[in-house]
Design a protein that fits this description.
The chain is an alpha/beta fold. The protein contains five helices and five strands, in the order E-H-H-E-H-E-H-E-E-H. It has a five-stranded parallel β-sheet, with helices on one face. The longest helix has 15 residues, at about 130-145. It is globular and about 40 Å long. The chain binds 1,3,4-trihydroxy-5-OXO-cyclohexanecarboxylic acid. 1,3,4-trihydroxy-5-OXO-cyclohexanecarboxylic acid binds next to loops.
Protein backbone atom coordinates (compact mmCIF):
# COMPACT_ATOMS: atom_id res chain seq x y z
CA UNK A 1 0.00 0.00 0.00
CA UNK A 2 1.29 3.45 -0.91
CA UNK A 3 0.32 7.06 -0.50
CA UNK A 4 -0.27 9.12 -3.65
CA UNK A 5 -0.23 12.91 -3.73
CA UNK A 6 -2.09 14.66 -6.57
CA UNK A 7 -1.48 18.38 -7.19
CA UNK A 8 -3.07 20.63 -9.80
CA UNK A 9 -1.92 24.11 -10.74
CA UNK A 10 -3.70 27.32 -11.70
CA UNK A 11 -7.10 27.48 -13.42
CA UNK A 12 -7.70 23.75 -13.11
CA UNK A 13 -10.37 24.56 -10.50
CA UNK A 14 -12.35 25.73 -13.55
CA UNK A 15 -12.30 22.37 -15.32
CA UNK A 16 -15.70 21.60 -16.78
CA UNK A 17 -16.37 25.24 -17.70
CA UNK A 18 -12.93 26.39 -18.87
CA UNK A 19 -12.12 26.13 -22.63
CA UNK A 20 -14.11 22.91 -22.95
CA UNK A 21 -12.88 22.29 -26.50
CA UNK A 22 -9.40 21.83 -24.97
CA UNK A 23 -10.08 20.48 -21.49
CA UNK A 24 -13.45 18.72 -21.75
CA UNK A 25 -16.55 18.71 -19.55
CA UNK A 26 -15.26 16.77 -16.57
CA UNK A 27 -14.88 18.80 -13.37
CA UNK A 28 -11.99 18.63 -10.93
CA UNK A 29 -14.36 17.14 -8.36
CA UNK A 30 -15.26 14.35 -10.85
CA UNK A 31 -11.57 13.67 -11.41
CA UNK A 32 -10.87 13.58 -7.66
CA UNK A 33 -13.76 11.20 -7.02
CA UNK A 34 -12.59 8.84 -9.75
CA UNK A 35 -8.99 8.89 -8.51
CA UNK A 36 -10.10 8.34 -4.89
CA UNK A 37 -12.24 5.38 -5.92
CA UNK A 38 -9.57 3.71 -8.06
CA UNK A 39 -6.83 4.28 -5.48
CA UNK A 40 -9.02 2.83 -2.70
CA UNK A 41 -9.86 -0.23 -4.84
CA UNK A 42 -6.15 -0.80 -5.39
CA UNK A 43 -5.47 -0.43 -1.65
CA UNK A 44 -3.69 2.93 -1.77
CA UNK A 45 -4.42 6.24 -0.10
CA UNK A 46 -4.60 9.45 -2.12
CA UNK A 47 -4.67 13.15 -1.40
CA UNK A 48 -5.79 15.66 -4.07
CA UNK A 49 -5.21 19.44 -3.98
CA UNK A 50 -5.44 22.37 -6.37
CA UNK A 51 -3.99 25.86 -6.06
CA UNK A 52 -3.76 28.95 -8.23
CA UNK A 53 -0.63 30.03 -6.34
CA UNK A 54 2.90 28.90 -7.11
CA UNK A 55 4.13 29.36 -3.52
CA UNK A 56 1.27 27.29 -2.15
CA UNK A 57 2.14 24.43 -4.53
CA UNK A 58 5.78 24.69 -3.39
CA UNK A 59 4.63 24.59 0.27
CA UNK A 60 2.50 21.50 -0.36
CA UNK A 61 5.33 19.70 -2.16
CA UNK A 62 7.61 20.48 0.81
CA UNK A 63 5.04 19.57 3.48
CA UNK A 64 3.05 16.72 1.93
CA UNK A 65 5.67 15.36 -0.48
CA UNK A 66 7.77 13.58 2.17
CA UNK A 67 4.71 11.60 3.35
CA UNK A 68 3.86 10.45 -0.18
CA UNK A 69 5.42 7.70 -2.30
CA UNK A 70 4.62 9.37 -5.59
CA UNK A 71 3.38 12.72 -6.89
CA UNK A 72 0.91 13.07 -9.78
CA UNK A 73 1.32 16.66 -10.92
CA UNK A 74 -0.45 18.84 -13.45
CA UNK A 75 1.40 22.12 -12.91
CA UNK A 76 -0.82 23.78 -15.58
CA UNK A 77 0.74 27.09 -16.72
CA UNK A 78 3.54 26.74 -14.14
CA UNK A 79 4.81 23.78 -16.19
CA UNK A 80 6.28 26.27 -18.59
CA UNK A 81 7.61 28.83 -16.10
CA UNK A 82 8.32 27.45 -12.64
CA UNK A 83 11.86 26.75 -11.53
CA UNK A 84 10.49 26.94 -7.96
CA UNK A 85 8.18 23.94 -8.42
CA UNK A 86 10.97 21.99 -10.12
CA UNK A 87 13.35 22.78 -7.23
CA UNK A 88 10.76 21.76 -4.62
CA UNK A 89 10.35 18.35 -6.30
CA UNK A 90 14.13 17.90 -6.39
CA UNK A 91 14.40 19.02 -2.75
CA UNK A 92 12.01 16.34 -1.46
CA UNK A 93 13.23 13.80 -4.03
CA UNK A 94 9.75 12.44 -4.76
CA UNK A 95 9.06 10.52 -7.99
CA UNK A 96 6.71 12.59 -10.14
CA UNK A 97 4.43 11.82 -13.07
CA UNK A 98 3.64 14.93 -15.12
CA UNK A 99 0.08 15.16 -16.41
CA UNK A 100 -1.66 17.35 -18.98
CA UNK A 101 -5.21 17.04 -20.24
CA UNK A 102 -4.41 18.63 -23.58
CA UNK A 103 -1.63 17.58 -25.92
CA UNK A 104 0.70 20.46 -25.14
CA UNK A 105 2.91 19.51 -28.10
CA UNK A 106 0.12 20.35 -30.56
CA UNK A 107 -0.45 23.80 -29.10
CA UNK A 108 1.47 27.09 -28.90
CA UNK A 109 5.28 26.66 -29.02
CA UNK A 110 5.70 28.01 -25.44
CA UNK A 111 3.74 25.01 -24.11
CA UNK A 112 6.26 22.54 -25.53
CA UNK A 113 8.82 23.34 -22.86
CA UNK A 114 8.33 21.86 -19.41
CA UNK A 115 10.47 22.56 -16.34
CA UNK A 116 9.31 19.21 -14.96
CA UNK A 117 9.69 16.80 -17.91
CA UNK A 118 13.36 15.92 -17.47
CA UNK A 119 12.98 15.22 -13.74
CA UNK A 120 9.73 13.26 -14.14
CA UNK A 121 9.46 9.48 -14.26
CA UNK A 122 7.18 10.06 -17.25
CA UNK A 123 4.46 12.21 -18.74
CA UNK A 124 0.82 11.51 -19.63
CA UNK A 125 -0.39 14.10 -22.10
CA UNK A 126 -3.39 14.65 -24.32
CA UNK A 127 -6.05 12.20 -23.06
CA UNK A 128 -8.33 14.75 -21.40
CA UNK A 129 -9.42 13.74 -17.91
CA UNK A 130 -8.27 10.18 -18.70
CA UNK A 131 -4.69 11.47 -18.49
CA UNK A 132 -5.19 11.35 -14.72
CA UNK A 133 -6.51 7.78 -14.60
CA UNK A 134 -3.76 6.61 -16.96
CA UNK A 135 -1.18 8.31 -14.74
CA UNK A 136 -2.75 6.62 -11.71
CA UNK A 137 -2.31 3.21 -13.38
CA UNK A 138 1.34 4.10 -13.98
CA UNK A 139 1.64 5.10 -10.32
CA UNK A 140 0.25 1.70 -9.24
CA UNK A 141 2.92 0.03 -11.37
CA UNK A 142 5.64 2.17 -9.84
CA UNK A 143 4.43 1.47 -6.31
CA UNK A 144 4.47 -2.25 -7.06
CA UNK A 145 8.02 -1.98 -8.36
CA UNK A 146 9.22 -0.11 -5.27
CA UNK A 147 9.29 3.31 -6.91
CA UNK A 148 11.33 2.27 -9.94
CA UNK A 149 10.02 2.68 -13.45
CA UNK A 150 9.13 -0.74 -14.91
CA UNK A 151 11.81 -1.53 -17.49
CA UNK A 152 9.52 -3.51 -19.77
CA UNK A 153 11.63 -6.66 -19.52
C1 LIG B 1 -2.45 22.08 -19.07
C2 LIG B 1 -1.62 22.64 -20.23
C3 LIG B 1 -0.97 23.96 -19.85
O1 LIG B 1 -0.21 24.47 -20.94
C4 LIG B 1 -2.03 24.98 -19.48
O2 LIG B 1 -1.44 26.17 -19.04
C5 LIG B 1 -3.02 24.47 -18.49
C6 LIG B 1 -3.48 23.08 -18.59
C7 LIG B 1 -3.21 20.78 -19.46
O3 LIG B 1 -3.58 20.05 -18.56
O4 LIG B 1 -3.43 20.54 -20.64
O5 LIG B 1 -3.51 25.21 -17.65
O6 LIG B 1 -1.57 21.76 -18.01
Amino acid sequence: MGHILVLHGPNLNLLGSRERHLYGHTTLLDIHQRLQQEAAQAGHTIDCWQSNHEGELVDWIQQRGPQANILLLNPAAYTHTSVAIRDAILAVAIPVIEIHLSNVHQREPFRRHSYIADIAVGQVVGFGSHSYTLALQAAFQLLQHGGEAPSGH
